[in-house]
Amino acid sequence: MPALELAKTIADNKIDVLYDLGGWMDPVGLQALSLNPAAQQFKWVGGQSITTGLNCFAGWIGDEMQSPQQFQDLYTEPLINIPGAYATYTAPSYLPKIAKLKSRTPCVFSNPAKISRQFLQHLQSIPGKKIFIHRQFKYARVQERIRSILGDACEFICPDSHEEALKALNSHAVMIDTFPYTSGLTAYEANALGVQVQVSHIGQLFCERHTAAYAGKMVQ
């Protein structure tokens, strides 16, 4: 729907509480919500890399690690932190059993969109090969961008399904966390498979603090 139509639909349905999951990934949604069509509006998860910059939300739902109160000045939304963690993890039925033998070659289990130049330069400083796991690494352009910095010190695994991706992750002892946009769900999955997650950068923004929030739960 166009933004005005969406706002009118929300208002006509007399929504008491609305949770936005789109954030900057859904600019039309944010434009509609900027009109305050619901009685109370909250920002939670999806697209939650930075503040919306809007004052139409009653709160930003996070936790003390990912959006600590001392960073309130980075948000236009009032911070509302859930004790423990802002999200929990339930493993899928096909999660493999923790592999007894794991490769010492580190892996990167991430959407290529999170592979920043800074992160690649960090990988370059780590001796040896790195394995990249994600179906979107199948694209030549993506591989070329990574090889332009790492050269031959990289290998790509492009699973056809999430189950295959978890099996590939399970075969590694270490997963190197991306930055500045860190892992989220994939960090939980690594933890469930007994894979140690290496965190080398913790920033101030929500998107820079995901994996650090789970660090206490990580297998050492």
Describe the structure.
The protein is α/β, with parallel strands linked by helices. The chain folds into 2 domains: 79 residues, 3-Layer(aba) Sandwich (Rossmann fold); 111 residues, Rossmann fold (3-Layer(aba) Sandwich). Helices cover 26% and strands 15% of the residues. The protein contains 7 helices and 9 strands. The protein has a 4-stranded parallel beta sheet, with helices on one face. Strand 1, helix 2 and strand 2 form a beta-alpha-beta unit. Helix 1 crosses helix 2. The longest helix is centred in the middle third of the chain and has 11 residues. The chain is elongated. The mean pLDDT is 92.
For the largest beta-sheet, the strand count, sense and barrel status come to: 4 strands, parallel
CATH H-tier superfamily of the largest domain:
Glycogen Phosphorylase B
Cα-based radius of gyration, to the nearest Å: 19 Å
SSE sequence, one letter per element: HEHEEEEHEHEHEHEH
Name given to the CATH architecture of the largest domain: 3-Layer(aba) Sandwich
Name of the top-level CATH class of the largest domain: Alpha Beta
Overall pLDDT, averaged? 92
Q: How widely separated are the two ends?
A: 48 Å
Q: What structural class do helix, strand and pairing data support?
A: alpha/beta
Query: And the CATH topology of the largest domain?
Result: Rossmann fold
Q: What percent of residues adopt helix (DSSP H or I)?
A: 25-40%
Whole-number tally of structural domains: 2
Got a strand count? 9
Low-pLDDT regions:
none
Indicate the proportion of strand residues: 15-25%
Q: Tally the helices: what do you get?
A: 7
